[in-house]
Specification:
GO molecular function: RNA binding; RNA methyltransferase activity
Radius of gyration: 24 Å
Number of strands: 11
Family: Belongs to the class I-like SAM-binding methyltransferase superfamily. RsmB/NOP family.
Number of domains: 3
Strand order of the largest sheet: 7-6-5-8-9-11-10
Low-confidence stretches: 2-24
CATH architecture of the largest domain: 3-Layer(aba) Sandwich
CATH class of the largest domain: Alpha Beta
Keywords: Methyltransferase, RNA-binding, S-adenosyl-L-methionine, Transferase
CATH superfamily of the largest domain: Vaccinia Virus protein VP39
CATH topology of the largest domain: Rossmann fold
Protein name: rRNA cytosine-C5-methyltransferase
Number of helices: 20
Strand content: 5-15%
Organism: Nocardioides jishulii
Distance between the termini: 48 Å
């Protein structure tokens, strides 16, 4: 819900009925795009599915591509991103706030069309009513029509002024205005301050979470050159040497992507892999470890870099189905792969002091990647962070044990939360005298245009 999405001045209102005696207008059919978007929301709500995994399935099911595919993606992802704000608006239009989940899903889609997309009001309302009739039944159609007519009476800014509690800029107001759980707002505010930034950046950070991310590609070194990427319509970002932005269109038109010589990968993730590869290592530099490898993007980039130096990467993943994703992801960089194994990273099968470099891209709350996983903000709870921190510490200890003296470990998370970043590194280093911190950095979506990745480089002494 960026600023450009909030301006709806001059939008048309619902047209008046035709003259007496005229034939009733034909009932519009539910178009496949809106039905697909509704099914994405249902899968997220009922099955705890991830929208980015369900979307391709729905596009294939309904044979949608091009503009239709883009419409479904924005409609479903936007409704999930704006869920907190939209629910507050919907509830303000109800006399009895309790709704069936499948009806609320229809309303969320309708509100997103009315307040944040260039869909005429009459079309958003009529198609939502028909979607209700088709997917839920006749009963709630009147309610859906009435609620959406109320929603259409004012724009998003006016609704936020009405439903967001507290003073503008307060945590309570920002939670509703930017569609984040209140505890996430507090955690991100603490993260800004903990990483040495100004808390005044918080509104910009929260708004960045709601901006649809641009597709970023990684051109794996030694496998694809600049001319091929430019010929396909990609442009370099100018930050990571391997990062390219994709302007749109069918990604399968890029042979390098289909063949695994390039991949879709956020620039922040690329920079984590580069942090490990760029760290200085004296002496032997032959064995690299990716301790938490799934789904394999960082493993593939590391393997491409390692192959150029005569080194190889062992990719370890605790979940078998994710290890299979890693296997597919590294298919084009076999020269740089020592193997892909399924195993518990906290209880490794290898001996201590085996590796020269190790990456710990630890499981985390994912609060730095809310642009790409909009549903995550509604699933995570503060207690999840406490559980994750214990695992993160154990994984970092395991990685430090795995590298030889003089070797390096990069600990990374796609979360800026202090407990998961600075807190984990500090706690582990306090407990041992054979490692020290060499450097660390934190990226932010509102300033760096990528996920809020954290990385710390530690050296085993």
């Amino acid at each position: 819900m960026g600023d450009h999405d909030r301006r709806r001045a001059g939008r048309g209102r619902q047209s008046r009925p035709g003259p007496a005696g005229s034939a009733p207008p034909s009932r519009p059919k539910v178009d496949p795009a809106r039905r697909a978007a509704w099914e994405v929301l249902k899968a997220v709500r009922v099955d705890d599915a991830y929208a980015n995994l369900v979307l391709p399935q729905m596009l294939e099911k309904y044979d949608l591509s091009g503009r239709d595919a883009g419409f479904v993606t924005e409609l479903a992802s936007g409704a999930l991103r704006g869920q907190g704000t939209y629910d507050a608006i919907i509830d303000a239009c109800l006399t009895k706030p309790k709704l069936e989940g499948k009806v609320r899903d229809v309303l969320r889609l309708g509100v997103h069309q009315l307040l944040a997309m260039r869909v005429p009001d009459h079309a958003a309302i009529a198609t939502s009513v028909e979607l209700t009739r088709d997917r839920v039944g006749q009963g709630p159609t009147g309610l859906v029509n009435a609620v959406l007519r109320k929603v259409a009476s004012q724009d998003l800014d006016a609704w936020i002024d009405q439903v967001a509690p507290g003073e503008p800029g307060s945590a309570a107001q920002l939670a509703v205005a930017t569609s984040h759980p209140a505890w996430v707002v507090d955690a991100l505010a603490e993260a800004l301050e903990g990483h040495g930034r100004d808390r005044a950046e918080l509104p910009a950070l929260l708004e960045a979470d709601n901006a649809a991310p641009q597709v970023t590609l990684v051109a794996r070194p030694g496998l694809v050159d600049e001319d091929e990427m430019r010929a396909a319509g990609a442009e370099p970002t100018g930050r990571s040497p391997y990062a390219w932005t994709w302007g749109g269109g069918d990604l399968t038109s890029l042979p390098a992507l289909v063949q695994g010589r390039a991949g879709v990968q956020d620039e922040g993730s690329q920079r984590v892999a580069l942090a490990l590869a760029d760290a200085s290592v004296e002496g032997r530099d032959e064995r690299w470890l990716d301790l938490c490898a799934g789904p394999g993007g960082k493993s593939a980039l590391l393997a491409a870099l390692a192959a150029q130096r005569g080194a190889k990467v062992l990719a370890n993943e605790s979940q078998h189905h994710r290890a299979q994703l890693v296997q597919r992801g590294v298919r084009s960089v076999r020269d740089g792969i020592l193997g892909v194994v399924t195993g518990d990273g906290t209880r490794p099968a290898w001996r201590p002091d085996t590796f020269d470099r190790a990456l710990v891209d630890a499981p985390c709350s994912g609060l730095g990647a809310l642009r790409r996983r909009p549903e995550s903000r509604w699933r995570r709870q503060p207690r999840d962070v406490e559980v994750l921190v214990r695992l993160q510490r154990a994984l970092l200890v395991s990685a430090l044990d795995a590298v030889r003296p003089g070797g390096v470990v990069v600990y990374a998370t796609c979360s800026p939360v202090v407990a998961e970043t600075i807190g984990v590194v500090s706690a582990v280093l306090r407990a041992r005298d054979d490692a020290h911190l060499e450097s660390s950095w934190q990226l932010w979506p509102h300033t760096d245009g990528c996920d809020a990745m954290y990385a710390a480089t530690l050296r085993r002494t």
